[in-house]
Amino acid sequence: MTANDQPREDHTHTGDEPGHRGVHDHSGAGHAHAHGISQNADRRYLIVALALIVGFMLVEVVVSILSGSLALLSDAGHMLTDAGAIAMSLWAMHLAKKPAQGIWTFGFKRAEILSAAINGISLVVISALILVEAIRRLIDPPAVQGGPVVAVAVLGVAVNIVAVWMLAKANRTSLNVEGSFQHILTDLYAFIATAIAGVIVLTTGFARADAIASLVVVALMLRAAWGLLRDSGRILLEAAPEGVELAKIREHLLATPHVVGIHDLHVWTVTSNLPALSAHVVLERSCFNDGHAPKILDELQSCLTGHFDVEHSTFQLEPGEHAAHEDAIH
After folding, report:
1. What is d(CA 83, CA 96) in angstroms, rounded to the nearest whole number?
2. Residue of 256, 328, 250, 317 lying closest to 283 (CA atoms)
3. 263-281 tens-digit pLDDT
4. Strands 312-319 vs 274-283: parallel, antiparallel or unpaired
């Protein structure tokens, strides 16, 4: 503990039971986490990006059919997943705002994480479809009209730059928003690759350039999918937040005066930017006899907030002999 770790008195609940004390903290004051950023602003950015993507996707489908370009058609398929990703993100935001009630003790906050996971899966599925068709066209390349491909691709680059710029202004620490951003960003790269392929077809007549550009798109989509599935999987499987070391947390908590043991320590993420912690804290018996336990609680919470930015914590304070009543301790 440091001299700057001051006790907090925010929304702390205590309850006494025979042999131990349960303490729960859901402090809301002074949150500096990014989940405090206005979701209304994020929603506006997503809606503008969605309108741009849907409008251009319709144009691209028509031109890809007329020109015979797989690269353009693959981009259009990717843009369809972009539109679906943004629409899903908007719906997830709506669900996440619903208050906790009944069996949904955290509300629907994890809807945003499910949205990110589905976005990652959709990128894998679309990339697999494009990969199969690209290989077929590498073997037997059809005729491709380079002019329309270049024109639409350049326009697509402009549209996606605007869409990426809009989403970059949103709260990308939200995995939900990041999922939509990755969809649009890979689409921007894909349009650049398509434009290059169109120029090659125009200048050299090398028709396989279109299929090669599609393979570049596949690689970019798989890269983005891996990041989304990795990060959403960590949260859904309740792994410790990235960069959080349980050994260091345990060390800091044990350094609190009168704390003699820590067990059943768990750290997980409820949703983006919402880490949570629970632990059983063994105190000296004197803390319960002289009423000193609440002050220890304040110090433990201040330690978490000051050193690890964890403001949602649940502690069970107990004397050493309480361990005999617990079947599994870790």
Report:
1. 20
2. 317
3. 889 988 887 778 889 899 9
4. parallel
Q: 6 lies in a domain? A: no
Question: Over the stretch 30-81, which tens digit does the pLDDT of each residue have?
Answer: 444 444 345 667 888 888 889 988 888 888 788 778 777 766 676 677 677 7
**Of 1, 6, 97, which is closest to residue 43 (Cα–Cα)?**
97
Are 164 and 91 in a shared domain?
A: yes
CB-hemisphere CA count at 13 Å for 68? Answer: 10
| Domain C-terminal end among 236, 260, 294 | 236
Q: One-letter amino acid identity for 269?
A: T
Q: Tokens 């503008």 correspond to what residue?
A: 48
CA angle 84, 87, 90 (to 5 degrees): 150
* Rounded CA separation 267/245 (Å): 9
Cα(235)–Cα(229) distance, integer angstroms? 10
